[in-house]
Design goal:
Distance between the termini: 32 Å
Order of helices and strands: EHEHEHHHEHH
Strand order of the largest sheet: 1-2-3-4
Strand content: 5-15%
Number of helices: 7
Mean pLDDT: 93
Helix content: 40-55%
Radius of gyration: 16 Å
Number of strands: 4
Length: about 150
């Protein structure tokens, strides 16, 4: 059984219930990893699902607007920089590597943070999904096997 928390601040309460998977928004707030104690997760046989790609479109567009001094809501073609500069496969992969280095086998799955519904178009959202895709996960797992 799983529950999705936007923040794992009170995750220990969940560890005391039959719910054994906690999903949370890691990509948008990487410091959330600091809230988790792997031993607490192990002792309660609880796993986590981590969001490894950012979907907070308003913040991401804000970064692009500041960097390029534009209004990306008006100049939609510049929005693609979100997935070509900010949320690239390499950036997402590093987040996954960090999460695994801290939580190890307590990670049950990795996915984008929630919030793709607010993206300005489906093609851009699809590109983020591609950057987070099984290809990246398979590449990550292959590297782990080779180590």
């Amino acid at each position: 059984m799983e529950i999705h928390l936007y923040s794992p601040l009170k995750y220990k309460l969940i560890c005391e219930t039959p719910i054994n998977i906690i999903g949370f928004e890691y990509a948008g707030t990487p410091s959330y990893l600091d809230l988790l104690d792997r031993k607490v997760l192990e002792d309660s046989n609880t796993y986590v699902g981590v969001g490894i790609s950012r979907t907070d479109i308003f913040s991401l567009i804000g970064i692009i607007n500041e960097k390029y001094r534009v209004n990306a809501w008006k100049e939609r073609n510049i929005c693609k920089k979100i997935v070509t500069e900010l949320e690239t496969s390499d950036v997402i992969k590093k987040r996954l590597e960090t999460a695994v280095s801290i939580l190890g086998d307590r990670i049950k799955y990795a996915n984008p943070d929630c919030g793709l519904a607010f993206w300005p178009d489906q093609d851009l959202a699809f590109k983020l999904l591609e950057n987070t895709s099984k290809k990246l996960i398979n590449e990550f797992n292959a590297e782990k096997r080779d180590q």
